[in-house]
Specification:
Bound molecules: adenosine-5'-diphosphate
Radius of gyration: 23 Å
Number of domains: 2
CATH topology of the largest domain: Aldehyde Dehydrogenase, Chain A, domain 1
Distance between the termini: 67 Å
Largest sheet: 7 strands, mixed
CATH class of the largest domain: Alpha Beta
Shape: globular
Strand order of the largest sheet: 14-15-16-13-12-18-19
Number of helices: 15
Number of strands: 22
CATH architecture of the largest domain: 3-Layer(aba) Sandwich
Length: about 475
């Protein structure tokens, strides 16, 4: 079992205190590197989730709102607490997610960055009076908190994903009811321990509920006291939330699946492209929504690029992320492992060939999937059409710019994309043609707190990060004054 001063309670947190889990229902949390159960966490009831919503409602202040200075202080305190406890929060994250320790601790810094950014830009949410005086009135625009928000997060960035949402919600003055993924609730409990100890937020401002998604989702979708949900996860669940909140016309911020194209033209710096692809693709074990999923390589450089990838991949170390210098940890669970294996098998059966990695029959038991590169991938293969969410690099060949823009867009998703070329005009044309919310030019980097990030098409609605993200949790209210 995991021991940590930040995990003294393994229960929910409602109205400023830890719940007592009177019913005694729990669920198991595993370390994917060892298969061991490392904690038993409270699985909460419908009435507890309703209590959390009620606590949020009691913390919402409309007629005497929390001042900008007060909200800035909450954000700064959370940022500072995360930074001061980066090692321990990162250790907990590493143990329940499996990503290498340095990546896990880096994620804590990344999370702190969102609280920092919102604290520094919160002034943008102050009311302003517009310079014109239409209709003989003075027009003031106020940014009101949306209300109590439901924040639902996935397991792939246990602290990063909540930081994006919570920083903006607190900046707006919105209380929240937070539901982490059941694979990774411990990092969230650690965050609540830090907020409990190091911030002076009113009771009910932040509430933690854990357990069955169906139970928690039902209350959050049906309660009229929760006017907004911010969700990161699968497109399938995102669609369900749209349907389940349609009746009340709730505000939704949705960050859903991706199927990122990574395009390498024949005039690209191939070494830089290969380095960036490795850093992008194997982050979090390949289990991020911005990981390159389809690698389009110009046919003239395909062999050379494949060799560079194989060279790099063959040097990577795979193992338990807690042991220092590991490049790649385990996949999150058996279902995740089996999906990557199925994609590899399917591609090889349909004519793709292995450039680096193992044949499916040699993968063995356990959740450690070796970094794998395949080539001659075509659009009928599962790894081209679906998000693999694992360390499989599928290369498909192309000839022309028009063809590759069309191929890149040949997916219902539109989250992250990447283009590598030495031609600036071409980069501009390709970025404009790709219907993706993020398009890296000669970089495989993902989001940052300072810039807006989000999807087009079935990858979702809304933005996180940047000023656009800061405005997600407010309603603009206009007050024209007649005299
Ligand atoms: P992933 O494939 O990354 O696990 P999911 O969409 O299944 O993505 O889950 C993302 C988050 O949404 C998790 O916290 C999960 O428990 C939660 N979730 C799943 N189903 C529902 C639902 N019906 N209502 C609310 N939350 C849900």
């Amino acid at each position: 079992m995991i021991e940590s001063p930040l995990l003294e309670k393994l229960n929910g947190y409602i109205g400023g205190r830890w719940t007592d889990n009177a019913q005694g229902n729990t669920f198991d949390v595993y370390n994917p590197a060892t298969g061991d159960v490392i904690a038993k966490v409270a699985s909460m009831s419908e009435s507890e989730v309703e209590d959390a919503v009620a606590a949020g409602k009691s913390a919402l202040r409309l007629t005497s709102p929390y001042s900008i200075e007060t909200r800035r202080k909450w954000l700064e305190d959370i940022r500072d607490a995360l930074k001061a406890n980066k090692e321990e929060v990162g250790r907990i994250l590493c143990m329940e997610h499996g990503k290498p320790l340095h990546e896990a601790q880096g994620e804590v810094d990344y999370a702190a960055g969102f609280f920092d950014y919102c604290s520094k830009h919160i002034q943008a949410l102050d009311a302003h009076t517009i310079p014109e005086k239409p209709k003989d009135c003075t027009w003031t625009v106020h940014y009101r908190p949306v209300g109590v928000t439901g924040l639902i997060t996935p397991w792939n960035f246990p602290i990063g994903m909540i930081a994006k949402k919570l920083s903006a919600a607190l900046a707006a003055g919105c209380p929240s009811v937070i539901k982490p993924a059941s694979e990774t609730p411990l990092t969230m409990i650690a965050l609540f321990s830090l907020m409990d100890q190091h911030t002076d937020m009113p009771d009910g401002m932040v509430n933690l509920v854990m357990g069955k998604a169906s139970v928690i989702g039902k209350v959050l979708c049906e309660s009229p006291d929760v006017p907004m949900l911010s969700f990161t996860g699968s497109t399938e669940v995102g669609r369900k939330l749209i349907v389940d909140t349609a009746e009340q016309v709730k505000k939704l911020a949705l960050e859903l699946g991706g199927n990122a194209p990574f395009i390498v033209f024949d005039d690209a710096d191939l070494d830089a492209a290969a380095d960036n692809l490795i850093a992008n693709k194997f982050r979090g074990g390949g289990q991020t929504c911005v990981c390159a999923n389809r690698i389009f390589v110009h046919e003239k450089v395909a062999d050379a690029f494949g060799e560079k990838l194989a060279e790099r991949v063959n040097k990577m170390t795979v193992g338990d992320g807690i042991n220092g210098d590991v490049d790649l940890g385990p996949l999150i669970n058996k279902a995740g492992f089996d999906k990557v294996k199925r994609h590899l098998e399917d591609a090889l059966e349909q004519g793709a060939s292995l450039v680096a990695g193992k044949q499916p029959g040699d993968l063995g038991d356990g959740l450690f999937f070796p970094p794998t590169v395949i080539t001659d991938v075509t659009r009928d293969m599962c790894c081209y059409r679906e998000e693999t969410f694992g360390p499989l690099v599928p290369m498909a060949l192309f000839r022309t710019e028009e063809e590759v823009i069309e191929a890149g867009n040949d997916t219902e998703f539109g989250l992250a994309s990447y283009v590598f070329t030495g031609d600036a005009d071409r980069a501009q044309r390709v970025a404009a043609g790709l219907r993706f919310g993020h398009c890296g030019w000669n970089t495989g980097t993902g989001p940052t707190p300072e810039a807006p990030f989000g999807g087009m098409k079935a990858s979702g609605t809304g933005r996180e990060g940047g000023l656009e993200g800061l405005f997600e949790f407010v309603e603009a209210q206009t007050v024209p004054r007649g005299f």
